[in-house]
Amino acid sequence: MKISTKGRYALRMLIDLAQHQNDGYIALKDIAARQNISKKYLEQIVPILNRSDILNTNRGYQGGYRLAKAPDKYTVGNILRLTEGSLAPVACLDYNPVGCERSGECPTLPIWKGLNKVICDYVDGITLQDIIDMQKDRLANDYVI
């Protein structure tokens, strides 16, 4: 499984909004500049996030975007599922019950189910606030004498 640039950039955009949540509405051009991401690419990601009520938008002068909820309410898993679709490592796990006629005797199905559980548990256990806190800790311990 590979996460596309759409998923990675959406996550970076939302982290940026979380870091600047006290600054009011943030213009897309400011996020693009800070994150070194094309504004045009972010414009393609915004509708996906808007449909899911993740963002609040404000048009006009001093318009822009901000998170609709606190950063601790958004998990990496939710964000990636919005942008990437399923995170399942194999297609047969995209359905519940498993949508494969061989699932009853498939010797590898338990492996894929286990991998899927590990992936989901991991990404669903990390919030935007966790990422911000980890970055602060990392930067606080990054000093040179």
3D architecture notes:
With 145 residues, the chain is mainly alpha-helical. It has a single domain (5-140), classed as Winged helix-like DNA-binding domain superfamily/Winged helix DNA-binding domain (Arc Repressor Mutant, subunit A). It is 51% helix and 6% strand. The protein has helices spanning 5-19, 28-35, 39-51, 76-84, 109-124, 128-140, and strands at 55-58, 64-67. Strands 1-2 form a two-stranded antiparallel sheet. It is globular and about 60 Å long. The model has no long low-confidence stretch (mean pLDDT 90).
Task: Name the descriptors.
single chain, 145 residues, mainly alpha, Arc Repressor Mutant, subunit A, two-stranded antiparallel sheet, 6 helices, 51% helix, globular
Can you describe this structure in just a few lines?
With 145 residues, this protein is mainly α. The protein is 51% helix and 6% strand. The chain has one domain: Arc Repressor Mutant, subunit A (Orthogonal Bundle), CATH 1.10.10.10.
How many domains make up the coordinates? 1
CATH topology term = Arc Repressor Mutant, subunit A
CATH class category name: Mainly Alpha
Structural category is: mainly alpha
By CATH, the superfamily comes out as Winged helix-like DNA-binding domain superfamily/Winged helix DNA-binding domain
Query: Unreliable runs, pLDDT <50, ≥5 residues?
Result: none
**Strand portion:** 5-15%
Spatial order of the strands in the main sheet? Answer: 1-2
Question: How much helicity do the residues have?
Answer: 40-55%
**What's the overall geometry?**
globular
**Oligomeric state of the chains?**
single chain
The value of Rg in angstroms is 18 Å
CATH architecture: Orthogonal Bundle
